[in-house]
Specification:
The chain is of the alpha/beta class. It is built from ten helices and eight strands. The protein has one domain: TIM Barrel, CATH 3.20.20.
Length: 275
């Protein structure tokens, strides 16, 4: 079973996507299940994890409604205000929906790099653990030290690092990112998503630009804790769905490892059914 563990839907008329502006012309339109379905059929992908793209409860409810009506969506990673006094009860309420599998604060857009370490977020992280939800860490390389501390505080928090922490591939920045990501992989049980890398590689990327980053993630997280995702439709800014999937197959030639990364790891990470 192949699972796309990171994709988005959005509807512009909802008007809560602050980052989605007309200058992002290829993305500035609605992307809905009927747009993704042909790609899934073409490549034999049987399920997806639908991930939030706006920091609002309204969008999370929108995504859960879409998931209820879309059989290929196996789970939703939503959003709620982790700093709210009601965060623990809000998380418990959302977790009652059978397709809510995780939460994702948009840490990359928060001005305070230490935000995730705030004491008032502790009840929210404890509630996520209690509700068996996955924490999608949308972080940048500069956040990896703080993420390491957070995971030390909450070793039971099932965590996945989105997009390999978005290394600056186009700027050929490798060493600091590589050291920090290796430490997290060694010291915690965190997973990492093999997604979003082409977007960070710039418009003139080649497979050789991306290969060292993929190799590093594979070396340190192993085939057991890497999870493949398309990041569609953001991916379309850099490449086609087919290109990224084919590149993954090329860069991970071991069949058993590839099978885990393309499917079974997502089942384990998000606790979704394979049927």
């Amino acid at each position: 079973m192949i699972i796309d563990a990171h994709q988005h839907f959005w509807q512009l008329s909802r008007d809560d996507y602050g980052w989605l502006t007309p200058d992002l012309e290829p993305l500035f339109r609605d992307f809905m299940p009927d747009d993704l379905a042909p790609h899934l059929r073409q490549h034999g992908i049987e399920g997806t994890i639908l991930v939030q793209a706006a920091p609002t409860l309204a969008e999370t409810e929108f995504l859960l409604d879409k998931a209820d009506k879309t059989p290929f969506v196996l789970g939703v990673v939503g959003w709620t205000d982790l700093a709210a006094k009601s965060a623990a009860s809000d998380i418990a309420r959302l977790a009652k929906h059978p397709k809510l599998v995780g939460l994702r604060p948009m840490i990359q857009d928060i001005a305070d790099d230490d935000w995730m370490l705030r004491p008032d977020l502790t009840p929210a992280f404890e509630a996520m653990i209690a509700c068996d939800l996955t924490f999608d860490a949308l972080v940048l390389p500069r956040h990896l030290s703080q993420l390491r501390q957070l995971l030390f505080r909450h070793p039971e928090l099932r965590t996945v690092i989105d997009h390999g922490a978005k290394p600056d591939i186009s700027g050929r920045q490798f060493d600091d990112w590589a050291n920090d990501i290796a430490v997290i992989a060694k010291e915690s049980g965190a997973y990492c998503k093999l997604s979003g890398l082409l977007t960070e590689a710039g418009k003139d990327w080649t497979i050789n630009d991306v290969a060292p980053y993929v190799a590093h993630l594979l070396e340190h997280f192993g085939s057991e804790r890497l999870v493949w995702g398309s990041d569609w439709p953001v991916l379309t800014m850099a490449a086609s769905y087919e290109t990224w999937l084919d590149m993954t197959v090329t860069l991970i030639p071991d069949e058993r490892a590839l099978q885990a990364i393309l499917g079974s790891n997502a089942v384990e990470l998000y606790r979704v059914s394979e049927t």
